Amino acid sequence: MPAAAISFSANDARAPLLSFALAAGFLLALYFLFAEEAAHIPEEKIKPPPAQTAERKKPVPPVAIYEPLPETAAPAPAAVPPAEVKPEWLQYKIRRGDQLHKILPRIGAPEEAREFLLAQNFKSYRKLGRGRILEYMQNSEGELIRLRYKTNPEYYLTAELGENGKWIANEAPPLLSTVAATQGGRIETSLFAAADAAGVPERAIDALINALEWHIDFYRDPRPGDEFKLIYEKVIDEDGELLAVPRIRAYEYAGKARGKPRLVRGLWNPEESGYYSPEGESMQGAFLRAPLKYRRISSRFGMRKHPVRKVWRAHKGVDYAARRGTPVRATADGTVTRARRERGYGKVVMIKHYKIYTTVYGHLNGFARGIRKNKTVKQGDIIGYVGSTGLATGPHLHYEFRVRGKHKDPLSEALPRRLPPLSKKALAKFQKQTRPLLEQLAAAEV
C-alpha cells in the first residue's frame, strides 16, 4: 500500500478522531488562503455590504458610562439679615372740623398713645388749622410711634414712643437757623406757577406777589417770557425743614407792560421797614393796582355805548368781570364815606384816602361785615362782594379813581407812593448796605 493511502476499518477506534482532524485542517487551510488574497487587494476595492455602509453614515451615540446631573442654578449665597429700615415721615392734611381726638385713630395711634396725647394741654392743639400738615411715623404694624406738628417756630409739637414703651411729648421751640436763598424763573402762564416750578416756597411766593402788587396788575400785565428773581430769608429747624419766611430781602421783575419794557426792583430797608428802589424811591404804593381777582376787563375808562341805556357817554371807571361773590378789597388806607344803595351804582362803597383821593366800588352784591359810613379801613381789607345791582347786565365791579374830585383812569394813572424818597444821607448809607444784594440779583440764574 502506498504511504499516502490511509485506510481503516469501521471497527477502528481512531476513526472519529481522524475525521475531526482532517476537517479542522481543511478549514484552517481555507482561512490562510483567503487572508493572503485579501492582503493583495487595494483598499478602494474593498467595499462593505450595503447594509453596513448605511449604518456607518449614522453617527453612533457614545455609550454613557454615568447618568448626567440635571443643570441647576448657582447656589444662592447665605442669607444676610436685612438692615433695619428707617421709618419715613407720613403726612396728614388737616380737614375742616378736624380735632386731635378724630385725627389720632386715623393715623394708627393705639389707645395708650391717644390717652397720653389728649391729656396734654398744648397750645398747638388749638392751631390745627384746615390745610395744615401733621407729620407722623408708624412701625411695621401700622401703629403710631412719632408725631410732629410744625406750624411755626412758636408752636412746634413733637411726641414719640420711648424705648421704655412710654410716650413723651413737648412743645419747646427747636434750634432754628435763618439763611438766605436766591432763586429765579421765567413766566409761561403765571408768576405763581413759574415760582412754584422753580422751587420757591409758597410763603415766599405770596410775599413776592404782595411786594409787586403795587406796581403790577397780575391779571393783565404778566406775559410769557417775563423773568423774576428774589432773595428771601427762610427759617429752618434742625432737620432743615422750612418753618417761616420772615421777609424778602430783594426782588426783581423784568418784562413788558402794555408793550413797554418794565423793570421793577425792590430792596429791603430795615431802617425804614419798607422796600426802596436802588435810587431811594419807596416801592410801596399807596394804592393797589387792582381791587380784586377778576376774569377780564369788560369795559375800560373813556367813551362807550352804555350797555343798558344804549347811548354814548363817558365811562368814568373800569369794569372788572368776576364771579358773583368775589371779595372786593380797599385799594388804600382810608375812611368810608358812603356804603348804601344808589340808583345807578346799586350797592356802592366810597372811600376817602389821604385827603385828595377817592375810590368808588359799585354794583356790589353786598357789603362786608362792619362796613359803614366813617369806618376806617386798611389797604387790602375786604369791603364787599361782586354783584350786579343797579344798572348792570351781569356780575362785575365798577371801580373809579378820583383825584380832587376829577375822574382818572385807574389803569394808567401814576399812583402815589406810600413813603417819601430817602434823603441824600440816608440814600448813601442804603446804597452801601444793599450793594451785595444787587450783585446777588445780577448773578442769579433764571
Structure description:
The radius of gyration is 50 Å and the shape is elongated. Mean pLDDT is 81; it is low at 1-11, 51-57 and 62-69. The chain contains 7 helices and 23 strands. The chain is an alpha+beta fold.
Topology:
Blueprint: H1 15-39, H2 50-57, E1 90-93, H3 100-106, H4 111-119, E2 133-138, E3 144-150, E4 156-161, E5 167-170, E6 177-186, H5 191-197, H6 202-212, E7 227-236, E8 242-244, E9 248-257, E10 260-269, E11 274-276, E12 296-299, E13 302-305, E14 312-315, E15 318-321, E16 327-329, E17 334-342, E18 346-353, E19 357-367, E20 376-377, E21 382-386, E22 396-403, E23 406-408, H7 424-443
Antiparallel strand pairs: 1-2, 2-3, 3-4, 4-5, 6-7, 7-8, 7-9, 9-10, 10-11, 12-15, 13-14, 15-22, 16-21, 17-18, 17-20, 18-19, 19-21, 19-22, 22-23
Helix pairs in contact: 5-6
What shape does the CA trace take? elongated
The N- and C-terminal alpha carbons lie at a distance of: 141 Å
Low-confidence segments, given as residue ranges, are 1-11, 51-57, 62-69
- What is the overall pLDDT average? 81
> Topology as H/E string?
HHEHHEEEEEHHEEEEEEEEEEEEEEEEEH
CATH superfamily name of the domain at 296-408?
Glucose Permease (Domain IIA)
Q: How much beta, percentage-wise?
A: 25-35%
Number of helices: 7
What Rg, in angstroms, do the CA atoms define? Answer: 50 Å
Assign the structural class, choosing from mainly alpha, mainly beta, alpha/beta, alpha+beta, or little secondary structure: alpha+beta
- Main pleated-sheet profile: 10 strands, antiparallel
**CATH top level class name of the domain at 296-408:** Mainly Beta
- By CATH, the topology of the domain at 296-408 is Glucose Permease (Domain IIA)
DSSP helix fraction: 10-25%
Tell me the CATH architecture of the domain at 296-408. Distorted Sandwich
Q: Number of DSSP strands?
A: 23
